[in-house]
């Protein structure tokens, strides 16, 4: 792991020169720090600015928030979204009145026990308001530390978050926790941003792992865990007088507008043909159905299990989205690659 000596001190120097003027900047009242943190959880600074001022004007302290009619709190919050935040704020204010005589608790364990306050907000309040060495790590902070220290593991893994927490825990003891927390948040918000970090004017350019390894765009590592859906497609090859029955896919789904053979999708790998009996396609008097080929086909988020069957039956009624085409005509139509491969192997070798 990369080692950066004096990072906390250098960060505070950067902060003293670059910090923005914000309504809650320099605030020491834990109540107001709490309100600003909750507003900023899902809201941009620009939008949160006016709401913060309005909220503090209407409810200047814990007691006024705790005793206000709930609809007044919701009215002030109106437009900010995520209304559970406003409900939780009032419930937590009532908790503080009832359990702590209206005085904001100082202990981390007490802060985190309040309604709606998680580890990040509790650490932010404990460090900013009470100078306690709790490291508050949000998305901005994970990004900055990953880039500086060269954290190459998936940022969403608990192990990686713990590693960053460890780094932060060591650093926050070296300087003022309040200043350090705010400086790191500010550095992530305006300097080491996700898309346009200002690496050319960065005080850490000599030591930054990401910059020195040309990995700024790649860190933090985020592995998207997308669930893969299993789907089972059964295609029926019906031929008559050297003509094959095909249809166009028109529904909002994979392969829209491409062609295919008449198809039934099932929830399980196997199909009970006595149940379906291909009635769907008006294919009647089936003498025999023979499985010709089975493919596994992987798409980004879907695993397809595709089977092709030869159907020996009497002439079908052609439906509006279907047509009979010759073998030669198949090559002029667009099919999904897996069907095109089947055609190449079994119909037009
Ligand atoms: S050099 Fe670039 S990536 Fe590294 S900390 Fe500075 S701004 Fe962030």
H and E order: HHHHHHHHHHHHEEEEHEEEHH
Strand content: 5-15%
Please outline the major beta sheet. Answer: 7 strands, mixed
Bound small-molecule species: iron/sulfur cluster
Helical content (DSSP H or I, runs of 4+)? 40-55%
- What is the CATH T-level topology of the largest domain? Endonuclease III, domain 1
Query: Which regions have little confidence, pLDDT < 50, spanning 5+ residues?
Result: none
Quick summary:
The protein has 349 residues and is an alpha+beta fold.
Walkthrough of the structure:
By secondary structure, the protein is α+β, with helices and mostly antiparallel strands. The chain has 2 domains: 7-218, Hypothetical protein, domain 2 (Endonuclease III, domain 1, Orthogonal Bundle); 229-347, Nucleoside Triphosphate Pyrophosphohydrolase, CATH 3.90.79. It contains 15 helices and 7 strands. Strands 1, 2, 3, 4, 5, 6 and 7 form a 7-stranded mixed beta sheet that branches. A hairpin with a 3-residue loop joins β5 (288-298) and β6 (302-312). α2 (30-41) crosses α3 (45-58) and α2 runs antiparallel to α8 (119-130). The two termini are 57 Å apart. The site of iron/sulfur cluster has 14 residues, from α9 and α12.
């Amino acid at each position: 792991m990369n080692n950066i000596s004096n990072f906390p001190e250098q960060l505070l120097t950067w902060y003293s020169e670059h910090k923005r003027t914000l309504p809650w900047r320099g605030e020491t009242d834990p109540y107001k720090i709490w309100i600003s943190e909750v507003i900023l959880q899902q809201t941009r600074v620009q939008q949160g600015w006016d709401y913060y001022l309005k909220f503090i004007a209407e409810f200047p302290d814990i007691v006024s928030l705790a005793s206000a009619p709930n609809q007044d709190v919701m009215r002030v919050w109106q437009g900010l979204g995520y209304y559970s935040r406003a409900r939780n704020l009032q419930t937590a204010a009532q908790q503080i009145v009832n359990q702590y005589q209206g005085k904001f608790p100082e202990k981390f364990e007490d802060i985190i026990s309040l309604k709606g306050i998680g580890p990040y907000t509790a650490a932010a309040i404990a460090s900013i308001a009470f100078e306690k060495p709790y490291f508050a790590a949000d998305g901005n902070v994970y990004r900055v530390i990953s880039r500086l220290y060269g954290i190459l593991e998936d940022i969403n893994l608990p192990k990686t978050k713990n590693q960053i927490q460890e780094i932060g825990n060591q650093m926050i003891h070296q300087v003022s926790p309040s200043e350090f927390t705010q400086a790191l948040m500010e550095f992530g918000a305006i300097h080491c941003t996700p898309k346009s970090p200002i690496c050319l004017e960065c005080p850490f350019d000599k030591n930054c792992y990401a910059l020195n390894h040309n990995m700024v765009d790649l860190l933090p590592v985020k592995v998207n865990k997308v669930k893969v859906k299993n789907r089972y497609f059964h295609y029926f090859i019906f031929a008559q007088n050297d003509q094959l029955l095909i249809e166009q896919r028109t529904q909002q789904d994979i392969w829209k507008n491409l062609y295919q053979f008449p198809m039934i999708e099932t929830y399980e790998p196997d199909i009970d043909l006595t149940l379906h009996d291909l009635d769907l396609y008006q294919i009647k008097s089936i003498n025999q159905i023979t499985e010709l080929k089975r493919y596994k086909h992987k798409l980004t988020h879907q695993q397809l299990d595709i089977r092709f069957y030869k159907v020996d039956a009497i002439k079908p009624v052609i439906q509006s989205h279907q047509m009979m085409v010759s073998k030669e005509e198949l090559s002029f139509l667009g099919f999904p690659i897996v069907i095109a491969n089947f055609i190449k192997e079994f119909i037009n070798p």
